[in-house]
Structures are given as C-alpha cells and as structure tokens.
Amino acid sequence: MNLEPENTMPRPDNALEELLIDAEADDEEVQHSPPVVSRPWLLLLGLILVALNLRPALSSMAPLLSEVSSSLGLSAAKAGLLTTLPVLCLGLFAPMAPILARRFGAERVVLGILLTLAAGIILRSSFGEAGLFAGSLLAGASIGIIGVLLPGIVKRDFAQHAGTMTGVYTMALCLGAALAAGSTVPLSHYFGDSWNIGLGFWILPALVAALFWLPQVGQKHGAHQVAYRVRGLLRDPLAWQVTLYMGLQSSLAYIVFGWLPSILIGRGLTATQAGLVLSGSVIVQLASSLAAPWLATRGKDQRLAIVVVMLLTLGGLFGCLYAPLDGLWGWAILLGLGQGGTFSLALTLIVLRSRDSHVAANLSSMAQGIGYTLASLGPFAVGLVHDWTGGWTAIGWIFAVIGLGAIIAGLGAGRALYVQVTSEKL
C-alpha cells in the first residue's frame, strides 16, 4: 500500500474527518474482528486514573522547590537540572514505548511502568540528593513511556469515540497537574512540614491506578497486525515545524510547572499561595484545551489560532513576572487559557498535518521525542540565568525568545498542508 505525498489539503475540519475515515478503513483491512473489551467502563476508568498520574510527579516539585533546595543545599543550577531532568526523559525514553509494547503488550507495559513511576516517587522523596535526582529520572522516563502508549490504546479500543476520549485524556492530565500543584504544600505542612511526605504522597494515586489497571492485563484487546514504514519524515520541513512548535510551547509549559511557584515566592507569595496560583492556572487549561482545537478548525488554517494562544501565554507569563501582585490571578487565568490552547493545538496539528493514521503515529513520535528533548532546555536555562543574576527579572528574555520561536514555527506548522512522506506496508 503506497500513499503518495501531497502538498495541499481540504479544509482542516474535512481533513480531520478524512483522516479518521482512513484510519477506520485501515482498521477494517488489518482486523478480521473488532476489539473485544468486556468491560469498557473499567478500561475507561483505568485510562483516566493512569492519565491523572502523568503530571503530579512534575508539578508537585515546583511549589516545594525552594524548600527542597534549602534542605539539601542545592544551587539554582542544580535546581534547574532537577526541573529539567524529568522533561528530558519524556523525550529520551518515548522511543522505548513501541519497542516494549511489541515485546510485552501495551497493557502489561502500562502496568509495569506505573510501578516504576511509584518507585521513582519513593526514591526521590526518601534518599537525599542522590535519590532526588535518580527518582526524578525514573519518574520522567516512566511518564514518557506511558504517555506514548495511552493515545494508541484510546484509538484501538474507543475508535468511534477517539476525539471525545482524547479530550477526556487531556482533561485528566490537566486535572492531575492542578491537584498536585495545589495540594502538595498543604499536605507537607499537614504532615509536620515534611517535604518528603509532600512529594512521596503521590505514590498513592499511582498505586491506585495500577490496581484498577490490573484487570486490563488479562483482557483480549484488538491489535493492528500489519506494520507500515513511513519514509521521508525527517527530511520534510513541515514535520520539523510541527516538532519545533511542540517543543517550544512545551518548553514554556515546563518552565511554568518547574519555576512559576519559585518566581512567585521570590515576589513575596508564600509557598502555599504560589502553589494555588499554579493550580488555578492549570485548571483553566481544561476549558481552552477543548475549545481551541474546535475553533482552530473552523477557519482555513490554524495560523491565527496559534498566534492568539501564544500571545495569551506570553501575556500571562510577563504579567506573572512583572505586573503588580494585585492582579496576579487575572494574569494566571490568562496564562492558563493560553497554555491550554497551545498544548491542544500542538496535538491537533499532528493529526491535521498527516495524510493517514500511520503518518500521524510517526509524526507524533517525532514531535514528542525530539520536541520534549528540546523542551527540557527551557527549565534548565531558567535555573542558569537565575543562578547568574540572583533574581528573576532577566527570565523575561527567555520567555520572549522561546515564545517568538514558537510563533515562527507555528506559522509554518499551521498552514493547510500535509507532510510530504510515503507510507508503505511491510
């Protein structure tokens, strides 16, 4: 089966519909019977619980970063590495996901990696500086692997409701991040002002998710039996524009997860207040993460939508950094609206720029693997600049450079084109 490269595409909403039709036709071609899921409600619950665990290990550290750094004597550069390491692992370990899934099955891998995520959370909260970094690495690697597998499971077992389920999946990610950002400091105070317990608490939802996911290991799920090779993706400029947009907008997101509470504490907020501001900003993302892709597919392309959500993001970031604290919640809401839109549009572009489901899978792997590796440089740069300057004022230049780069990449990625590749059956 050969699919010739194309340069143009119909309206984006029609393109998305056409992609889903192509994917369903591929499914019919390679499967003699539909997937069998005896208890879909249990799979749905399991997916939600797993997704809830894909951000707390990242967002729980930020409100406690100052306290952890003081307790262990970490420099700002080491603190920057601590916020960078999990994000770097998202990109570096993402390519392992399909390899492990082919060897052991996606369900077994998700269960096993949930347990390694729990181990990473315990390691970083219980064994000093060495455990902190080793546990952060293990947690980031675990999240990177699971994050690649879940969308495929959604597509396979909820093919007729893939859009809705992707929305539910994204909302669960945001909710998990918000809960961890807002409650980690109060939890640590409740249990005797111990940051160890505040960080270690998040092993509980990971174990609960593993318990509810366990029945999926024994289920008979449908699987695609035909492999496809996609050629030319790394040579296609549009694919790189999508990847750069994914990476640059993610860099700003992980700067917020890793450093926004520290920035706000430096401006005079308490750790609890700073965590609540981050939590509230992430909660707002629930709305824009659903609305932005729908609005973006109403026009001829996504360029205007990309510019709007990125300007909202930059406005919120600069407001949180420089504006009077009296209006802080307004800037946090603006930031949440922008970042919810930038993230969901990055995922939408992967679909809209792909001619079929096989290209989309490969473009997703490229965008996440390379993009998240690129994204890790942002939090690390913030730590270095803060260490050099002793303050937060100069961080605005990092926001501006990354934001401008994301707009430039987005203007290319938002054009109504397909990536020029060929897809052939092995």
From TrEMBL:
Keywords: Membrane, Transmembrane, Transmembrane helix. The chain crosses the membrane at residues 41-59, 79-97, 109-127, 133-154, 166-185, 197-217, 238-260, 272-292, 304-325, 331-352, 359-382, 394-418. One of its GO terms (cellular component) is membrane. The keyword Electron transport does not apply. This is CynX/NimT family MFS transporter. One of its GO terms (molecular function) is transmembrane transporter activity. The keyword Phosphoprotein does not apply. Pfam families: MFS_1 (PF07690). It comes from Pseudomonas spelaei.
